[in-house]
């Protein structure tokens, strides 16, 4: 698979890319209570095996890409829930590890019946951390420098966890609010190869 554009390489082998489904819905079906400011990210600390189980089920069903349980995962969010900074950082990286472990349990090196599935890190907006619905409105007061700084640590932690791709969730009316974090990612993220 091409290191520079793994999605293009994957699509050269198959006519379309299957992305996993609703992580939270499947976790709730397994009996997990997600009624929490951290949403499914809380399970990184309390039931990581459930997250891995859902990722693996999607890979077994044919998913070409899993999206990590990191949408709501931020160091400040975990710390507000009573965790230490180091634990919060490790949990963000665990979100990548769990998806990679699930993929590696299903896909083996040298396997020829399907391309190697990808892992994409989910990065929610600043408003997701606030857990007050502002992620849907963009109604929070943080300047561009504040947004870049807020997202920087999470991007760095996710990148350090392994070779991943990004699933960012901007909305059209957030264009100005997301421009700086996305520009930071494009200019500061390590280049493949």
Automatic annotation (TrEMBL):
Stored SUPFAM superfamilies: Homocysteine S-methyltransferase (SSF82282)
Keyword Transmembrane helix: no
Entry-linked PROSITE patterns: HCY
Pfam families per record: S-methyl_trans
Species whose genome carries this gene: Vreelandella olivaria
The UniProt record lists the keyword Metal-binding: yes
Every Hcy-binding domain range: 5-193
This protein's name: Hcy-binding domain-containing protein
Record keywords: Metal-binding, Methyltransferase, Transferase, Zinc
Superkingdom: Bacteria
InterPro entries for the chain: HCY_dom, HCY_dom_sf, Hcy_S-methyltransferase
PANTHER family according to UniProt: HOMOCYSTEINE S-METHYLTRANSFERASE-LIKE ISOFORM 1, ZGC:172121
């Amino acid at each position: 698979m091409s290191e520079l554009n793994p999605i293009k390489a994957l699509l050269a082998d198959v006519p379309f890319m299957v992305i996993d489904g609703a992580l939270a819905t499947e976790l709730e079906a397994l009996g997990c209570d997600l009624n929490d400011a951290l949403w499914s990210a809380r399970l990184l600390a309390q039931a990581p095996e459930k997250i891995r189980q859902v990722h693996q089920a999607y890979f077994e069903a044919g998913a070409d890409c899993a999206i990590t349980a990191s949408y709501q995962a931020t160091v400040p969010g975990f710390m507000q829930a009573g965790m230490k900074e180091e634990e919060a950082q490790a949990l963000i990286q665990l979100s990548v590890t769990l998806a990679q472990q699930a993929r590696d349990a299903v896909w083996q090196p040298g396997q020829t019946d399907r391309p190697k599935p990808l892992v994409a890190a989910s990065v929610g907006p600043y408003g997701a951390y606030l857990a007050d619905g502002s992620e849907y409105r963009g109604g929070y007061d943080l300047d561009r420098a504040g947004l870049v700084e807020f997202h920087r640590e999470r991007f760095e932690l996710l990148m350090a966890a392994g070779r991943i791709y990004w699933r960012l969730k901007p909305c059209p009316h957030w264009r100005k609010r997301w421009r700086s974090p996305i520009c930071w990612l494009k200019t500061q993220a390590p280049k493949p190869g």
